[in-house]
Amino acid sequence: MPDSSVHINHNGFREYDARWLYPKDINLAGIKNLGHGLGTQIVTETKKQNPRVIVGYDYRSYSEEIKDSLADGLIAAGCYVEDLGLSLSPMAYFAQFELDADGVAMVTASHNENGWTGVKMGIKKGLTHAPDEMAELKKIVLNKQFINGKGKLKKIENFISRYKKNLIEKNKIKKKIKAVVACGNGTAGIFAPDILKGIGCEVIEMDCNLDFNFPKYNPNPEDLKMLHAISKVVKDNKADIGFGFDGDGDRVGVIDNNGQEIFSDKIGLLISRNLAPQYPNSKFIIDVKSTGLFSQDQILKDNNCETILWKTGHSHIKRKVHQEKALAGFEKSGHFFFNQPLGLGYDDGINSAIQVCHLLSNKNKEMNEIVKELPTTYQTPTMAPYCKDEEKYNVVDEMINKFKNFRNSNTLVDGQEIKDILTVNGIRFTLNDGSWGLVRASSNKPSLVVVTESPTSEKRKKAIFDFIDHHLQSTGKIGKYDQKI
Q1: pTM of the predicted model, to two decimals?
Q2: Secondary element (H or E) of residue 324
Q3: Domains of the chain and CATH, by start
């Protein structure tokens, strides 16, 4: 293929994975160069002439042709590509361990609308590319700094059954749980029902037939349309729990037996409380959007467990779980990460659902009763005001400086002093009563992220948001919110 035909929009190299509109922003020649660049990275990192790389792809109409071009690029760098065929992201991650391979590349745009494609990739087992690796990959690909070698392709037959068996065998539950399993016609439809039936659940399937047109809604467990649809089926069937999986199976959303959505950070806390007595002295990693209840939780304190707030993003949390040897990590978006002995450190939505089933099985209570054991807090959804990519980080820096000045000058927010400031990912400020607000830059789109929570009142939650929004608007660089309280 002549070099002149290569088309790659440089903005597709995101903070920890790659996403493009196809073929508008990348063509097959561009995908081949992406594979050649990734192969170059893997050859360099592993110091092997022919490193073995796992490749899988999701059920979009164009994913297989993209996988083929990506594999051609990997082979051009000298990689021995092992093709799993149709996969979930966690299945590809599992295969890297199970087959002891040197790298992984999963073709998926996750829950993005049709027309999007992308690659989640990694070299060290259980980890995916972080900003340094992505910056290096971008440089190699755009400057064509390729290593040339001679690789080959091998098909791995029937790996799906190995992945399913691994999750089923060690996770049998004693209590009969009736679960609605919703997959939004995404790839998880041929995995999640079988696995949850296998551990002992009675499964009510919902949109589990594969249809790359996503006729009802995108498979996204943060999408209210999907969650409301699951809620109705849970109530109609008097189910114990509802699970909604995203397009590549690494995230899950949870609906209780009354049809109420439970924010994923609260699910993370419930799972942590369930695990803490079995695994005392454990560490749990949570992202900066997560509930403040972790730091106050008595069960975690009684079992000497530590909670660490860290950067939002699946690659960031995975790496922190690995680095801290934490038992688990939780993101408000529904990415959960279980380390040994519960998992291998990567995010797997089905394993996350299994841990919720263990929680239900261990307690002789309905899910809504278990949730009621947590103190009430008033949380906003994740809100994203538009802000240009080239301006968003400067706006966040401005907010950091403002809030540091507010703390130093004892400026009150709804009558409360700012007690603590965390700047590991944007700014999260905490008030005297434990209420908090967050402003950070989105990692993968031109927007900011705003979240607030109060253990005190709905009014204070809103007052914190209004305070943040007032100071954001004063920058003159903020557009419309995707959703707003």
Answers
A1: 0.93
A2: helix 314-324
A3: 3-157 (3.40.120.10), 163-372 (3.40.120.10), 378-473 (3.30.310.50)
